[in-house]
Amino acid sequence: MSSRPADPSTHPDDASPGGGLRPTSAFGIAATFIGTTIGAGYASGQEILQYFVSFGPLGGTGALLIAGTLFFLLCVIVLRLAQRLRTTDIHRIVNPTTSRIPTVFADVCITASLLGTLVIMLAGAGTALHSALGWPPLLGAALMAAACVVSVLAGISGLVRVQGVIVPMIIVVAVAVAAWGLLNPGPAVDDVASLVNSSPMIDHWWVSGLLYVAFNVQLAYAVLAPIGQESSSSPRTLATGAALGAGGLVVMAGAIMAAMTAHAQLIGRADLPMVELAGTIGAWAAVVYTAVLLMAQFTTAVSCLYGGVARLGALAPLHPVPAGAIAVATAAGATLLSSVGFSDLIGVVYPVLGYAGLVIILMLLATWLFERRAVRRRNAATAVD
């Protein structure tokens, strides 16, 4: 799961509806969507292990198809709503009412997603450094947290450019390792599901597909909305971009799922299954993969800390508190929580965020339906006039 800093309070509605519009390519939409969704959790393999591999080849494939379909539909809906409403305000997109309750709920969920992902990234960094250097996991997490605080205090505008390099590296390295795993399979096993990590909060493969989208897409809303708001592209182009993005995610996740299934005995209980799989190529490959993974964890963690501090600082009781103090306190708390363990956190925190995210998806769908109904009424009134 990747996240990027965004200002959720941006209101570009003051601009003229026709100003600043430009066509957006389908490839650009797809690349942005994939880059936002793929992050350190994906690169580690732990997400795909628990959400897809743990349900066996058939169940995992079914969950992946559900996820791909939902990614496509939600991407299209957010792009079209933002384009039609000419807004990047996530509150307008997911709140179909005039009540503040849905807005507050969405704010709480997104803030929880930022902070929860921060904890998981720190836990993953601790695990990676423990595996590579033998350091205590809490020390590795603390060092990553300290680096994140320094980056936030120094300003993180450069991280957006860094992510533009890291995300393609994740994709290339992960797919290359997956290809190696498929070409050099391990011993065949009869019951893959019994060998691998699984979430205690997910019992059915179809629920897994829903939750995987629900927690991943929460942070993609703030990235997709500006694309739709600023785009003059046709609905067909927006839909094509969404289809390419969702299809790319399915293909890449499917390749990793198949590779890990082929090596279930090796990676089943590993915290960093893709690092273990890279180790079958050679020790150097495991080192390279660990380095890329740490970079991905760092960029994701800094973005989450930045966004979390911005949201916490907006709370009235914390207005007098310096942002630096909030950043230090948040990073310290996240470091302590990271001691729960990387795989355990992914198995519990992400499903909780996913269940909350399902409510946001329902709110988004309601907004979409109400907006379509309003458009039909306006068209009917125009026809009568």
Overview of this protein structure:
The protein is mostly helical and 385 residues long. The protein has a single domain, classed as Amino acid/polyamine transporter I, CATH 1.20.1740.10. The protein is built from 16 helices and no strands. It has helices at residues 26-37, 40-44, 46-51, 56-85, 90-94, 101-133, 137-154, 157-183, 205-216, 221-230, 235-261, 264-267, 273-279, 283-313, 323-337, 342-384. Helix 8 (157-183) packs across helix 11 and helix 14 packs across helix 15 (323-337). It is globular, with a radius of gyration of 21 Å. Mean pLDDT is 86; it is low at 3-19.
What's the quick description here?
The protein is mainly α and 385 residues long.
* Total number of strands: 0
Cα radius of gyration in angstroms: 21 Å
Give the CA-based shape. Answer: globular
Mean pLDDT: 86
Give the SSE layout.
Elements lengths: L25 H12 L2 H5 L1 H6 L4 H30 L4 H5 L6 H33 L3 H18 L2 H27 L21 H12 L4 H10 L4 H27 L2 H4 L5 H7 L3 H31 L9 H15 L4 H43 L1
Helix pairs in contact: 1-11, 4-9, 4-10, 4-11, 4-16, 6-7, 6-14, 6-15, 6-16, 7-14, 7-15, 8-11, 8-14, 9-16, 13-14, 14-15
Task: Give short descriptive properties of this protein.
mainly alpha; Amino acid/polyamine transporter I; 16 helices; 74% helix; disordered N terminus
